[in-house]
Structure of Outer membrane protein assembly factor BamE:
Amino acid sequence: MKTKILILLIAFTFLSCKTNNSETDGKAKMTFEKAKWIEIKGGDYPYRDEMLSDLMESGILKTLHKQEVLELLGEPNRTDENFLFYTVSQQRLAFWPLHTKTLVIKFSGENTVEWVKIHE
């Protein structure tokens, strides 16, 4: 029993370790496409992480109103008052999430974008 627990702890440790160096990511950058942004395969969004840098660097989100953001990005995974949350990627161990990257958009009282951040 102790051996099984030790093996699980070691496996969990190795699976949860990841470098944050973009050079070692091996992910190609893609230009933003709405159809690929909203595509879901097996509960994951296969293209969002690759398109995120283009979306952030373009600055397009900061010029939009809430309804325009919803039209561009589709329905968010979660909402909270003046915030929209879009899951970009999620690493799991079985069904437990180990690491989640989320695009967070905050709106001002006039429904204009106040800021856009990536939460990891």
Q: What stands out?
A: The beta strands are 78-80, 83-93, 96-107, 113-119. The helical segments are 2-16, 34-37, 48-58, 66-73. The chain has four helices and four strands. The mean pLDDT is 86.
